[in-house]
Amino acid sequence: MEDEEEPPLGPRTQVQGRVLLLTICAAGIGGTFQFGYNLSIINAPTMHIQEFTNETWRARTGRPLPDHQVLLVWSLIVALYPLGGLFGALLAGPLAITLGRKKSLLVNNAFVVAAAILFGFSRKAGSFEMLMLGRLLVGVSAGVSMSVQPMYLGESAPKELRGAVAMTSAVFTALGIVTGQVVGLRELLGGPQAWPLLLASCLVPGALQLASLPLLPESPRYLLIDRGDTEACRAALQRLRGARDVAEELEELEREGAACQGCRAQRPWELFQHRALRRQVTSLVVLGSAMELCGNDTVYAYASSVFREAGVPGEKVQYAIIGTGGCELLSAIVSCVVIEHLGRRLLLMGGYCLMAGWASVFTAALCLQSSLPGMPYLAVACVFAFILSFGIGPAGVTGILATELFDQTARPAAHVTCGVLMWTMLFLVGLGFPFVMEGLSHFLYVPFLGVCVCGAIYAGLFLPETKGKSFLEISEELHRLNFPWRAQGPAWRGPEVTESTEL
Question: What are the Major facilitator superfamily (MFS) profile domain coordinates in residue numbering (predicted)?
């Protein structure tokens, strides 16, 4: 009978329904989790590594290293991480096209394994150069994973969950930051003897990914559109969707593949040459720059002094810092839950508007903290509120743009462009922040406030909403926006056709 109730799902179907969740976890634990983890664990052993550098130099030359040179070596150890990330971002596109999304993440763990070995034996070998090389390698790994993981998850998720699934990259980044802060406590691995193990502990999430990700499917879009393997795509979709009928989704993928047929993968610099990609590239550059220049990373650098001004004892500051990471994790989870209800544009606008408001209050609190007794506590509240606002909006939504705004042929190049932009900005902000802080003092957040306002305005006026739309529908809408007068632009029939298939 047609109206007869369907039988309950069996164990096999229920297991298949969990494959997407397992894919998210396996990709995240060795992907953006590593980025957040390696970003935060370097803070705890700062003094121990500087002492190790001085002792190593004394053992080699018989005299200590001057303080300014110790600081220079330490700065290099820290700065090589974003430099490695820049190299990794450049490597991500060719890897994703040549090996596929899943295999790229697996091969990427080779950098982590090599770095963990260098970290683990650096003190025994008496070589701070091993720390430098290790930081460069984990940076390369982070650069690859920050580009490939959102691409992999965005292409594997159904359109009604694509935003939430892609947002898990931000959740795992925040989880990595918090985990690194906890593991780096003096009571755990942040002590003077255990710091090589702390740095080498990045091997653990890498090993978890190597053990789990090979059992999970490749991106269905990559299998069909890039490799032309319809049966492998169907099998991957059936595993990812469980009991759901995949015929309609497969047909949609085939239409998208037909639109891309005969097209070569775009090179990063070519994205800036095509009028048909103008809105996408502008959104990527403007909002990607806004995310890195909005001041969130500097809040972490300023948090310790703010907590001390508020009366938090010096030995307890490390626990208060964990609270900042916990705020970002909480807000990323909230954003992951609400993004498919509120949409991308509203979260970006709301996040930047809230950040601008809190930056204004934070500036006032810093200026008045010596004259009004309650201002230090208000400054502490602003630190947490600013991080929460960043996590709800810009932190995760910005990372989705390269996946959703570009078609299959331009997506790897878009992630390369986004990654290069992000890591370059991260390096420049880290380099210039001490000088900006010294020059502007309590008015440090005025430039960041301006960036937040500009980000909110751009998101509200120029960013198209992509919630609940297929990649094909998004491409058609963006084509209309890039060619507002149809007579001046060709009808959309897919990306530009060229003969080569190389990035």
Answer: 24-467
Distance from C-alpha of 168 to C-alpha of 406, rounded to nearest angstrom: 20
Contacts 24+ apart (CB under 8 A), 242-249: 242/13, 242/14, 242/16, 242/17, 242/18, 242/19, 243/9, 243/13, 243/16, 243/17, 249/158
Angle at alpha carbon of residue 141, lines to 73 and 395, rounded to 5°: 95
Measured between alpha carbons, how far is 9 from 13 in angstroms, rounded to an integer? 6
User: Structural domains in the chain?
Assistant: 13-216 (1.20.1250.20), 269-484 (1.20.1250.20)
Question: 439: how many CB neighbours lie within 10 A of its CB?
Answer: 9
Distances (CA, A) of 111 to 84, 130, 138, 192, 429: 11, 14, 6, 26, 25
Does the structure show a pLDDT above 90 at 277? Answer: no
Q: What residues contact 108, with CB distance under 8 A and at least 6 apart?
A: 30, 88, 95, 141, 144, 145, 148
For the chain, how big is the Rg over CA atoms in Å? 24
Task: Give Cα 379 to chain centroid, integer Å.
Answer: 27
pLDDT at 482: 80
| Residue linked to tokens 């949409």 | 343
7 pLDDT above the threshold of 50: no
The pLDDT-based confidence of 175 (bands split at 50, 70, 90) is very high
pTM: 0.84
In total, the chain counts a number of residues equal to: 503
In tens, the pLDDT along 418-455 reads: 888 888 888 887 777 767 777 887 888 888 899 999 99
- CA–CA distance, 103 with 94 (Å, rounded to integer): 12
Give the pLDDT confidence of 452-490 residue by residue, as tens digits.
999 999 999 999 888 888 888 888 888 888 887 654 445
Of 258, 367, 259, 352, which is closest to residue 309 (Cα–Cα)? 367
Dump pLDDT digits (tens) for 387-405: 999 988 898 888 888 888 8
| CA nearest neighbour of 124 among 175, 209, 59, 63 | 59
For 11, the token pair is 């164990």
C-alpha 467/C-alpha 347 separation (Å) is 12
What pLDDT is stored for residue 408 in this prediction? 79
| Alpha helices, DSSP H, located in 343-491 | 344-368, 375-392, 394-404, 411-440, 446-462, 471-482
Q: How far is CA 181 from CA 60, 300, 317, 380, in A?
A: 33, 12, 12, 19
Tokens of 407: 């078609």
